[in-house]
Design goal:
The protein is an alpha/beta fold. The protein has a single domain, classed as Rossmann fold (3-Layer(aba) Sandwich), CATH 3.40.50. It contains 11 helices and 10 strands. Strands 1-3-2-4-5-9-10 form a 7-stranded mixed sheet, with helices on both faces. The protein has a 3-stranded antiparallel sheet with strand order 6-8-7. Strand 2, helix 2 and strand 3 form a beta-alpha-beta unit. The chain is globular and about 50 Å long. Belongs to the AB hydrolase superfamily. One of its GO terms (cellular component) is membrane.
Length: about 290
């Protein structure tokens, strides 16, 4: 194991994170998955012919997901805390340049981080996610009440949901997504564990709670205004309609934005890994050292 590998494992452990990495390049690519997914979201890309000489590729399980630690019993999951988690991770790792890849919620984490710390990021790629999910000012109180109601319910039990078989888990995930069986299976392998009663989810149940706070549109636009980081936005051809609304709303926040349409649904990077990797690599190589 190289010194770089040891330092990466040490940094992840210190932060209570789990993940996978590949390569030994002096430049770091961090990949962030979407809500209720895990680092296996990028497994199809990691199975392709990565440039491991110039880059070290790292994909993590966000807190509460996959094999990463849950937050303490008296804590909750706020979107902005994921941005802070990313900040701490980048500070722990010593690389020449840092590039970000984010899918869905992971993309939103990436673009808010880049807005706050533009000097730390060489370039980023956002996959079917852009901007920040917002709440109308008139809905702020109801947002808070819904969050408090769910907190009370979850405080009575933090037990994760169980299924009779792993096949049931995969099919349940397919019902709430566009994923085919193989990709749903890939994600749920890392989000589950076998127990005496059957198969149990490893994701923290609190991830499904209403957030107690969301930015208004005005606040979100202010946070993201003037992003200088060269950004590639990969839009899924059969993605969610909400993404079109988000792109229209936040497009002008980016000073250097390229949009590329990718065949497939919301998880187009899993469906078309080779094409996605080629598109991302071309973008990053343009901002890498010669």
């Amino acid at each position: 194991m190289t010194s770089s590998e040891k330092n990466t494992f040490k940094a992840l452990k210190q932060l209570g994170l789990s993940g996978k990495f590949k390569g030994s390049g002096k430049n770091l690519i961090i990949c962030l998955h979407g809500w209720l997914d895990n680092c296996n979201s990028f497994a199809p890309i990691f199975a392709e012919d990565l440039n491991t000489l110039d880059y070290t590729w790292l994909t993590i399980d966000l807190p509460g997901h996959g094999e990463s630690h849950w937050k303490s019993h008296d804590a909750h999951y706020y979107f902005i805390d994921y941005v802070y988690d990313l900040k701490r991770l980048i500070e722990e790792l010593d690389f020449n340049k840092v590039f970000l890849v984010g899918h869905s919620m992971g993309a939103m984490i990436c673009n808010l981080y880049a807005a706050c710390y533009p000097e730390r990021i060489a370039a980023m790629s956002l996959i079917d996610g852009i901007g920040i999910v917002t709440t109308k000012p008139s809905d702020t109180k109801q947002q808070l009440l819904n969050a408090f109601k769910q907190r009370k319910k979850s405080s009575e039990s933090l037990e994760s949901k169980s299924f009779r078989s792993f096949d049931d888990v995969v099919k349940a995930r397919m019902k709430v997504s566009e994923l085919d069986y193989d990709n749903a299976e890939l994600l749920m392998k890392r989000n589950t564990e076998f127990v005496e009663q059957g198969v149990k989810l490893k994701t923290d149940p609190r991830l499904k709670q209403h957030s107690g706070f969301r930015f208004s549109t005005t606040q979100a636009l202010s946070c993201l205004d003037g992003i200088k980081t060269p950004t590639l936005f990969i839009k899924a051809e059969q993605g969610y309609p909400m993404i079109d609304v988000q792109l229209k709303l936040f497009r002008d926040c980016f000073q250097n934005l390229t949009v590329s349409v990718m065949p497939g649904g919301h998880h187009c990077h899993m469906e078309n890994a080779a094409q996605t990797l080629q598109t991302i690599s071309s973008h990053f190589d343009a901002y890498n050292e010669s």
